[in-house]
Amino acid sequence: MKNRVHYGEFTLDYWLKQLVSGGIVLPEYQRSFVWSKEQIKNLINSISRDEFVPPVTIGKLNDKNIIIDGQQRLTSIALAYLNIVPNERRYKKQ
Question: Can you give the pTM of this predicted structure?
Answer without folding.
Answer: 0.79
